[in-house]
Design goal:
Elements lengths: L1 H17 L12 H16 L10 H6 L7 H5 L3 H6 L2 E3 L21 H18 L9 E3 L17 H22 L9
Parallel strand pairs: 1-2
Helix pairs in contact: 1-2, 6-7
Length: 187
């Protein structure tokens, strides 16, 4: 980890000196530790929080997390989630980085129902922060069969994605009614 930290500090320092804007892509194999090291190095070098969009599905499967552990284990750096305004929401569980939303007959799968409390936790976490630009872009993503994310026997991913978006909107609106999101648009 020490070598990783040196590399990160060197990269951040050179980027800041040349004044260019950079996009940092971190392969999932490097995991959260390297992403967090980059965020920490950026903060140390600039005094600012790095804007990040974390795909929570991959760390969940690497650690084989149970749905009851998603929030405590995946929302462990609220500062990073709260400073951004994009939330990648691919439904997942602890063994699959993508799960079907519906059973193909119109009912939600148990796996998706188990995932929704994590969505509520992520939304609540963001709302407890500074809410950049007062807008959270939520991307309910489901990859196609051809990408390896979908399975041929699952319902069509586009239709499932539309259902997922509707269910996530219900979660958001539920938080809005509770007063947590009173100043935020629920569109």
């Amino acid at each position: 980890m020490r070598e990783c930290w040196k590399e990160v500090r060197s990269l951040i320092g050179s980027w800041l000196r040349d004044g260019q804007r950079r996009v940092i892509f971190i392969a999932q194999s490097h995991g959260k530790k390297k992403a967090y090291a980059i965020a920490d190095g950026y903060r140390q070098a600039t005094g600012k929080t790095l804007r990040m969009n974390i795909d929570h599905s991959h760390p969940a499967i690497v650690k084989h997390l149970r749905p009851a552990d998603f929030e405590s284990r995946l929302l462990d750096r609220p500062d990073l989630l709260q400073h951004g305004n994009l939330l990648h929401c691919r439904p997942f569980n602890g063994h699959h980085c993508q799960i079907p939303v519906t059973d193909g007959a119109g009912s939600l799968t148990q796996e998706f129902r188990d995932y929704l409390p994590f969505v509520a936790g992520a939304f609540s976490c963001w709302l407890e922060g500074p809410c950049p630009r007062n807008t959270l872009w939520v991307v309910p993503e489901l990859g196609p069969v051809s990408s390896g994310y979908g399975i041929s026997t699952w319902p069509p991913v586009w239709e499932d994605c539309i259902v997922a978006m509707g269910e996530m909107r219900k979660v958001w609106n539920g938080l809005h009614r509770e007063g947590s999101a009173e100043d935020h648009d629920s569109a």
